[in-house]
Design goal:
Structural class: alpha+beta
Number of domains: 2
Number of strands: 10
Shape: rod-shaped
Protein name: Biotin carboxyl carrier protein of acetyl-CoA carboxylase
Radius of gyration: 27 Å
Number of helices: 2
Largest sheet: 4 strands, antiparallel
Distance between the termini: 68 Å
Pfam families: Biotin_lipoyl (PF00364)
CATH topology of the largest domain: OB fold (Dihydrolipoamide Acetyltransferase, E2P)
Organism: Albidovulum sediminicola
Helix content: 10-25%
CATH architecture of the largest domain: Beta Barrel
CATH class of the largest domain: Mainly Beta
Order of helices and strands: HEEHEEEEEEEE
GO molecular function: acetyl-CoA carboxylase activity
Strand content: 25-35%
Strand order of the largest sheet: 3-10-8-5
CATH superfamily of the largest domain: RNA polymerase II/Efflux pump adaptor protein, barrel-sandwich hybrid domain
Keywords: Biotin, Fatty acid biosynthesis, Fatty acid metabolism, Ligase, Lipid biosynthesis, Lipid metabolism
Length: 167
């Protein structure tokens, strides 16, 4: 800040604020030199504190039913909410061990690891969670049948979020 007040500083700061709004800028920083040891540093910002990062809470959904019409009643039964309502409390829930992006297939356009009705073995990969550019294979914690798929391909997941129901 300056050692001596300058009357033009207030007008200068107001002009910077107008420039910020007129050009749809978020922030503007300027240093104005008056003399060797006399300057004015101004930082004008549209937003006080940085906005908090968004938190994603994916809603549980079923995998799309692209099978024959005969499997429609089975798919409808699989998408019905479990008794108690919360899929995370289901004894067969497979939960996310990390925050990341869930992928249902090994690569875009390929068949998913599992679908509703798939028989899985303990340790078999059921989906992938990408975290920090690393693909983490998520194994089935037990053998059984996939009853529900609770995430869509490419959706963000939180730690502990239910991913699948295996019974």
């Amino acid at each position: 800040m300056t050692k001596t007040p300058h009357e033009s500083d207030v007008a200068f700061i107001q002009a910077l604020a107008e420039l910020l709004n007129k050009n749809d800028l978020a922030e503007l920083s300027v240093k104005r030199e008056y003399a060797e040891n006399d300057s004015l540093n101004v930082k004008v910002s549209k937003y006080g504190a940085p906005a908090p990062a968004p938190v994603y809470h994916p809603a549980p959904i079923a995998a799309p039913a692209a099978a024959a019409p005969a499997s429609a009643p089975a798919a409808a039964a699989a998408t019905a909410p479990a008794a108690g309502g919360d899929p995370a409390s289901h004894p067969g829930a497979v939960t996310s061990p990390m925050v990341g992006t869930a992928y249902l297939s090994p690569e875009p356009g390929s068949d998913p690891f599992v679908t509703i009705g798939t028989q899985v073995k303990e340790g078999q990969t059921v989906l992938i969670i990408e975290a920090m550019k690393t693909m983490n294979h998520i194994p089935a914690p037990r053998a059984g049948t996939v009853k529900r798929v609770l995430v869509e391909d490419g959706t963000p997941v939180e730690f502990g979020a239910p991913l699948l129901i295996i019974e």
